[in-house]
Specification:
The chain contains nine helices and two strands; from the N terminus they run H-H-H-H-H-H-H-H-E-E-H. It has helices at residues 2-27, 34-41, 47-52, 55-79, 88-109, 111-127, 136-153, 159-177, 199-213; strands at residues 184-186, 189-191. A hairpin with a 2-residue loop joins strand 1 and strand 2. The longest helix is centred in the first third of the chain and has 26 residues, at 2-27.
Amino acid sequence: MVKARYKKSLDTQSRILDAAEKLFAEQGFEATTTRQITALADVRNASVNYYFATKRDLGVAVIDRRFDQLKKEREIRLERVNLSDGNVNEALRSVVEAFVLPLHVLSKRDPDGWRNYNRIIAQIAASGRWGDDIYVAKISELAAQFINAFAQLFPERSMQTNVQAYNFMLGVTLHTFANVGQNHTIGQTPIQPLPQSATDLVTFIHAGATAVLAHDP
């Protein structure tokens, strides 16, 4: 009996998180009401407060369940990159791969969920409220690891340049994965923003990062 209640509780929480993630992605955090979330999740109106205390706590939980997984996978790949073997070009590409490929793999497993997650992160990035946003500490910790990798590969570049290169990489990646699984048309040409292989995306970001970081200071 206890096990059945526990499973039902986890199922309810998962439905709330899925509904909140979808609505936050489509409407934004501020515009989404808890009543809309419970209606989409098909749970009682009081369920959000029961499981997450506040809407703010729910917002953190929505980010945490995917970000923590993504952070772990990116860190594992980044730790494998040899930043001191002298082959700067190859190491830089490996750093880019450590950022892009984990998200590509995860997005293939759950296109809708990860598309919604990336749209939420893109909203945060575009909001101009990084300094006081509820997600800033977690996101900045991971960002610093990639910025420091750039700094090790290109010690002559300023920290501002390293941050700029990271922001370019983040922006291109967010735009691409925020549209994963959805086809669009430019003019008369149908396009699918995310290819089956992420190789082209890695190549594009690597070339841009090289142009920013590798030229003479």
